Amino acid sequence: MNTLSKKSIQKLNTCHSDLKRLIKTVALEEKCAVICGFRGRYEQEKAYYDGKSKAKWGMSKHNLKPSQAVDVVPLPLDWNNIERFEKLGRKIMQKADELNINIKWGRDFKGLKDYPHFELNTDI
């Protein structure tokens, strides 16, 4: 049984209860880490200017409290192993469907393929 690290739990605790439930469920079967939940103004603007986000401050679901977006990566982390990101993403989408949580996967965004990103499928 896999579990999330203390740091991952802290980041996950900034997220909407549906995302918390989903990622905790996935983490029982897959080794993963939460790298971002809520993102403040500085972090969002940095992500935007570094080309890691298409959204400026206030336009991302990471900017809501609680966050309606979470970034999750497979462990051990290898940013070049897209196959492992795909496997984890498919598991997250499968569990979301089983738990009746409507989410979008950043892999499916137009322009920027954001493999770690999952967000509630709601309007901001």
Automatic annotation (TrEMBL):
<dbReference type="InterPro" id="IPR039561">
    <property type="entry name" value="Peptidase_M15C"/>
</dbReference>
<protein>
    <submittedName>
        <fullName>Uncharacterized protein</fullName>
    </submittedName>
</protein>
<dbReference type="InterPro" id="IPR009045">
    <property type="entry name" value="Zn_M74/Hedgehog-like"/>
</dbReference>
<dbReference type="GO" id="GO:0008233">
    <property type="term" value="F:peptidase activity"/>
</dbReference>
<dbReference type="Pfam" id="PF13539">
    <property type="entry name" value="Peptidase_M15_4"/>
</dbReference>
